[in-house]
């Protein structure tokens, strides 16, 4: 499985490297090359390929539409970094920091249009339907990003709103990747929808896993500072659940930690983790994560008798679930 994924990544990266952009103005096109050279797991186009392989083997025939998803994903990253004022992406300067915000906005817009060009290369009879699915996904991602920004201005967020936010911001694109691959392989719309729902639920589980790894992961494996979400007061499932379950005194302590502007990061992380331990937050988040993973796999169970080769997709997904970084 690892060798197969590496093969997919190498082929996708090779095709990205061959993509021709305009030459002038350089300020418009160089940020696109810079962004796509930064690497990444290419998980979304790989999911499209994995869905296609459940029914057909000539996966290289769908590289163009699969890469359209990767271009759209990178468009969102360019714009998200502006909104988040993030200085680094994959260890490199973000586009808006290396150039400026206006260039980043315009380059991101161009990347989005190029994504549509690749999508239109899909060999699918009802291309209008495929584009409509993509458009719905794009709008949902924008809705999720707006919800995430809205959360920054309010003290607490209900659990169901947080789940809806990560579903829209992150998971629907995983779902679309699988749905598109399934449709291009010749699945019925009903079958493809089951794969979409699988991807959405698994995606929610992945985000909850990332929330947990940020607090309880191994720095050497995760590759970033543990407790970064705590230090930045990010409204993750863990923090929101702690605020919901804390008694008056514990909530006061938690509120003080959140409000502090002058603090020792290590002590803050340790103090918040102590509150999480007191409230059983890790176990609650793990249970919720498992719920969404199980919910996703139930969609695949419904496809078991459909003469599809689901084993590689299941193995790939399980490998992602089992990761510790």
The CA-CA distance between the termini, in Å, is: 18 Å
Main sheet specs: 2 strands, antiparallel
Helix content: over 70%
Going across the major beta sheet, what is the strand order? 1-2
What is the ordering of alpha helices and beta strands?
HHHHEEHHHHHHHHHHHH
Strand proportion: under 5%
Give the radius of gyration: 21 Å
Helix/strand/pairing class, anyone? mainly alpha
Low-confidence stretches: none
How many extended strands? Answer: 2
> What is the average of the pLDDT values?
93
How would you summarize the topology of this molecule?
Blueprint: H1 2-18, H2 26-36, H3 43-52, H4 63-84, E1 88-89, E2 92-93, H5 95-98, H6 101-119, H7 127-151, H8 159-184, H9 189-216, H10 219-222, H11 228-231, H12 237-245, H13 248-259, H14 265-279, H15 281-301, H16 311-322
Question: What keywords describe this structure?
Answer:
globular; 16 helices; 325 residues; mainly alpha; two-stranded antiparallel sheet
């Amino acid at each position: 499985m690892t060798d197969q994924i590496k093969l997919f990544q190498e082929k996708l990266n090779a095709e990205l490297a061959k993509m021709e952009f305009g030459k002038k103005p350089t300020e418009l096109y160089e940020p696109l090359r810079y962004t796509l050279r930064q690497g990444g797991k290419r998980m979304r186009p790989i999911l499209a390929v994995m869905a296609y392989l459940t029914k057909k083997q000539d996966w290289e025939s769908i590289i163009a539409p699969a890469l359209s998803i990767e271009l759209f994903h990178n468009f969102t990253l360019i714009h998200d970094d502006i909104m988040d004022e993030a200085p680094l992406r994959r260890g490199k300067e973000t586009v808006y920091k290396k150039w400026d915000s206006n260039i980043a906005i315009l380059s991101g817009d161009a990347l989005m249009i190029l994504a549509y060009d690749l999508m239109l290369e899909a060999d699918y009879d009802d291309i209008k339907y495929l584009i409509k699915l993509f458009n719905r996904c794009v709008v949902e991602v924008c809705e999720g990003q707006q919800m995430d920004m809205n959360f920054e201005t309010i003290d607490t967020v209900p659990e169901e709103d947080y789940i809806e936010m990560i579903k829209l911001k992150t998971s629907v694109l995983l779902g679309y990747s699988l749905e598109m691959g399934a449709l291009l392989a010749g699945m019925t719309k009903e079958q493809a929808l089951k794969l979409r729902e699988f991807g959405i639920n698994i995606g929610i589980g992945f985000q909850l896993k990332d929330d947990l790894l940020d607090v309880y992961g191994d720095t050497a494996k995760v590759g970033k500072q543990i407790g970064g979400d705590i230090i930045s007061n990010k409204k993750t499932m863990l923090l929101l659940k702690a605020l919901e379950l804390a008694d008056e005194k514990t909530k006061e302590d938690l509120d003080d930690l959140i409000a502090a502007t002058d603090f020792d990061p290590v002590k803050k992380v340790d103090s918040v983790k102590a509150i999480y331990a007191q409230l059983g937050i890790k176990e609650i988040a793990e249970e919720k994560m498992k719920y969404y993973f199980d919910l996703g796999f139930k969609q695949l169970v419904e496809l078991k008798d459909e003469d599809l080769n689901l084993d590689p997709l299941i193995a790939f997904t399980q490998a992602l679930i089992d990761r510790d970084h």
